[in-house]
Amino acid sequence: MALSTRRWIGLAASGFLILGIWMLPPSAYRTSGPVLTSPEEARAAQLRRELRRARDILVRTRWADSITPLTLTSARDGVAVGGDPRVVDGATLDSVRVRVGEELARVGSTGRAVVGVFIQPRHFAAPDVAVADVNRVEDTYIGLLDGSPYCYRVIGAPGRVTHTSAPLRRVSLSPTRHYSNILGSCRLVARYGLPGPAVLAWLERGALGFATEPVHDPARSQRRLLPARSLFGLGGPSYWIRSRSVARCLAGIDGSCGRLLSDPVSEADEGRSEIQHVVDRSPVSGIREEAYGEPFAHYDNYLLADLEADFGARRFAAFWRSQHQVSTAFEAAFGTPLDLWTAAWARTHVGSLEAGPGLPGSTSTGTGLLLVACAALAGLWARRRRVA
Asked: pTM of the prediction?
């Protein structure tokens, strides 16, 4: 074999190898957490985790014991607002009360439950051994006390809170459209009353995160969770797709979207699992923390708002108050299986993945064009050498 031929074969093989390595996806999602190198470090990490769990359960129990009665006794016109002067002043609380009234008027509150908002330090009522934590938390408590239904939010702030601080600032849908969302998921309780037992248990199993936004945000749908692949196959699924359940749902596998919606923490990441551990063992109904997201990132924050908009208030109320399990209540109220609606919602707002092995069309097209260009350059170079 001539030297020039071997050189061309070697160059072609090297090019294919480099192109293959460049386009192969990572084998797994890698976290940025510390790598534990010894049994002692692993045990210490486990003890810190257990300490944080115990601290968080104790804090939520103390919050519920003190704030739940306060919500019912201090409510005026069905609204209770309060805060610790160390983190919030009276003017801000007055602004919060006004905006809560506006939100209740917008959603059409029926007075079926007392709603409230309380702002206090992040580590209020925490034991002295509390683990350092600088994240803001937003807790939701839903329940019944002495026959009186309630839903209130506790905003645990690491520092001073004003009307422009998250989550008190208004959310912008466009330069001319804004909305207030201080009540969060409590707006549904204000409108429809307490959910049925099975629906409430579902909310506390992670579905409360589907109700945090009161309105669909079109700007978020335009920024898809799955970035479009480039000409040569770069991009691909976002790191937010952190579970097999989400990937199966986006790939259109039958039943996967329904299972994901009915049990959103079934394959949750470690952060969500830790939060769910606290919810399961304390009076809190839901915890929203800055560091952790939902199955579809921020896109599913308005999933229940979309469901309400698609089928109307009467059908949504039937689902919300149903005494049946979630999947049965969903189909009875809306006339469509849970899985079918969720799959359609995910395709519209999140995107889709291709199931099974194979390359996307954009990748194959880009690779073919690159090979044609290389072949053309090689032919041109060979012709110039013969002419010379």
From this structure: 0.79
